Amino acid sequence: MKRLKQLLRSLAVILGGAWLVSCAGLWVFQEDILFPGRSVPVDAVYPGQVGARDVWVDRPDGARLHVLRMPAENAKGTVLYFHGNGAWNAYVGSVGALFGDMGYDVYSLDYRGYGKSRGARSEAAMLADALAYYDQIIDGEEAPIIVGRSLGTSFASYVAANRPVSKLIMLAPPSSIADVARRRFPVIPSALLRFPLSTDSWLAEVHAPITIIHGTQDNVVPIESGRLMKPLLKPGDRFIEVQGGGHNNLLRQGEVITVLTGELANP
Prior knowledge:
- The chain is α/β, with parallel strands linked by helices.
- The protein folds into two domains: 1-34; 38-263, Rossmann fold, CATH 3.40.50.1820.
- It is built from eight helices and eight strands; from the N terminus they run αβββαβαβαβααβαβα.
- It has helices at 2-34, 93-101, 123-138, 152-162, 177-184, 199-203, 223-227, 254-263; strands at residues 53-58, 64-70, 77-82, 104-109, 145-149, 167-171, 210-215, 238-242.
- Helix 3 (123-138) crosses helix 4 (152-162).
- The relative contact order is 0.12.
């Protein structure tokens, strides 16, 4: 019995130590996990984006944000796009072409530390960046359509809750980063997260029409996380589940293109 108690005590110490190491690792490396995008020289040229233009948003703390403008001929409206955490502006040409073919000027913001954007990250700073992006690009013009993908839906919903928008379209949204973290790391306290990004709290403040599109086989942002936001939707809002749709192939699903074409038929 004494040996068993010693064994259990040793096991508890080992497990406790492993838990503390895991907590410390999450605290130290969470930016690398959540924001894996890399920096490139500010004069880098992104191939395959003929006609795209650089726009710069300068922030009071010295940060400088890169926005890629992909203009459409005879545009009927504007789309402000917030990409996922695994992309940056070098890889949004297909999104620009998709919405451009529907008749929209498309703008895409690179977050701090992504692509040509520079600046120290914090949740407060990045949320303020999203509003500054809107304010500089729209500048009193007709309310844009806001499109967010994955992590980008957090910034998209925050903007839609705080600025006039005509529509909010969310592709594979987490209800919050804290929720996704709890699903992946259930023993790690959510209080350690410096970027909880509570999309659900902002969604409840959005007055514009909302369309959420989520694949049932999403192994990055589980659809169960997206479903938590269904009770927050207004009459007329839509939550569309794409059967068999994954995370990275969502915009290659014919059903999704059909939905987006209908949503963007009018600004």
